[in-house]
Amino acid sequence: MDPELLAIIFGLASAASWGSGDFSGGLATRRSNVYGVVIGSQFVGLLLLVGLALIYAEPLPPSGDLLIGAVAGLIGGVGLMALYQGLAVGRMGVVAPIAAILSAALPVLVGTFAEGLPAIPQLAGFALALVAVWLITRGKGALPIQWRELGLPVVAGLGFGLFLVLIDQASETSVFWSLAAARVASLTLLITIAAVLGRRIVPAREQLGLVLLSGVGDAAGNTFYTLAAQLGRMDIAAILSSLYPAATVLLARFVLHEQLTRRQWAGLLIALAAVVLIAL
């Protein structure tokens, strides 16, 4: 199969995996503490990545790549904590779209600088994809955004964006081990913060199934994104994987029977148009 087409498929698979992982983690968080869910899902993902590395006999990458992976994990962990703190104290309709758009925009800027501008249809697809993410994640009847609300979502978005950029660099010689190094670093950070705050780090027993699905979805999303960035352009991989909120809201619609707003339906249609343009 053509590598560029395969990169697009992997990018969309990343979005589907991340979106389903977020859906499962969100359900688990409704009935369990957030630290237990996040740390539990990260641990599941670590086990999965190490297992895949051993199954495929992937050689250990150079120490420099492992270090870059660990730094990516720490930065991603900071972004994750900023996201959850922002969701806890701010408006989800502000925090989620800003974080999602920044996390996609940063790899696009880096990719454009490193590899040059993509084709015109793909640039149009990038713009439509960012609009789609904004519409899908903005809540019904959202009020204007205040400047004081931007701090945490900006930190979250930059953290996730830097993670995507760095993990692409770290995985040039090894995929699973580099992602595992990132997971070890983020787990260390999250466990330390939870211990300092005196929070429980083990999820409720009845939520273990959802935590397992969340961890698998997150690890699979990271893997598919890395493969997409290796086979194609990093900016295309980042934009396609940033459509993960579409998978989350669709699962909420069909599993929980939540009603989507006209804005969200419009965002889903625009996302489809974006994918077509990027595939051109």
Describe the model:
The protein is mainly alpha-helical. It has one domain (3-279). The protein is built from 11 helices and no strands. It is globular. It starts with a helix and ends with a helix.
Helix content: over 70%
Major beta sheet, specifics?
none
The radius of gyration computed from the alpha-carbon positions, rounded to a whole number of angstroms, is: 18 Å
**What's the total number of strands?**
0
Domain count, please report it: 1
Proportion of residues in β-strands: under 5%
Question: Termini distance?
Answer: 16 Å
Order of helices and strands: HHHHHHHHHHH
Number of helical runs? 11
Decide which structural class fits the backbone: mainly alpha
Architecture blueprint of SSEs:
Elements lengths: L2 H29 L2 H22 L7 H27 L2 H24 L4 H18 L13 H20 L5 H22 L10 H24 L2 H8 L2 H12 L6 H18 L1
Helix pairs in contact: 1-2, 1-8, 1-9, 1-10, 2-7, 2-8, 3-4, 3-6, 3-7, 4-5, 4-6, 4-9, 5-11, 8-9
Summary, kept brief:
The chain has 280 residues and is an all-alpha fold.
Features:
280 residues, 11 helices, 80% helix
